[in-house]
Amino acid sequence: xxxxxxxxCSLNGTGIEYGLSTKAVAQKLGIDFVxxxxxNCCGASSAHNRNHLLSVALPARNLxxxxxxxxxxIAVPCAACYQRMKAAEVALRDEATRQEVGEVxxxxxxxxxxxxxxxxxxxxxxxxxxxxxxxVRPLSGLKVxxxxxxxxxxxxxxxxxxxxxxxIMDKLMAxxxxxxxxxxxxxxxxxxxxxxxxxxxxxxxxANVLKYAKLAGADCIVTPCPLCTSNLDMRQKAAEGLLGMExxxxxxxxxxxxxxxxxxxxxxxxxTKHFVEATSLLKNSPAAQ
Length: 289
Fold this sequence. Notes:
Layout: E1 2-5, H1 16-29, E2 32-35, H2 47-50, H3 52-68, E3 73-76, H4 79-91, H5 95-105, E4 114-117, H6 118-124, H7 128-134, E5 143-146, H8 168-175, E6 179-180, H9 199-215, E7 220-223, H10 226-234, H11 236-243, E8 251-253, H12 254-261, H13 266-269, H14 280-283
Helix pairs in contact: 1-12, 3-4, 3-5, 6-8, 9-11
């Protein structure tokens, strides 16, 4: 299978483990990701707060580049990047908008390339029987809280699944042998975008997500969003202090857990780069015995 790839700003930086695990899992599964040449920042999250035309033009240029290179589907790992790219795709359905944006970016753009969240590609495009056949280390006994955050399922025009109770990642985790837990915070905002401007409010939101995952009986949280992952991982100690309770919840990218189930080395997947120690839980799980 072949897809275009829009890596965004995080896969080689704050979300380096996401980039490493995505590359390793794709190679293992025979998925060909072709990086969009000369891609630019999607504008998240500052552009759409400042100028509507700019917020469409920035991601639209990436869509135009994809069209030029014959890329029909673009896999986007970052939830924020996905939302901006998908929103631009929707906006470009309007002819007047296409013409205005085309003038700004000095490129022809039709908006024909389809924007896909990376989790959609792995969860929806892979045959369930095929996925089961390549799992060599089922995640048996691992209780996982699938955390989607707020950017992949809202608003409705860009949602990859139900905005209230998405199940796409839960089903993927179940296919890997893990046990998804039921909890009510899977689409609540973690407050990552407020970490600098309103740190106290942000920490409270972060703490709530972590607390309710813990109370639901989860051993860990799995997410497809670099911002959510960084926030829940890096600020977990502060959240423990605010809550007055120990959490100890590793925060995994779904691609990391896929890689473990496929038998890949943890260091190859970036699992040694987490703030909350992330390898012991997997080494000590029934699947590792």
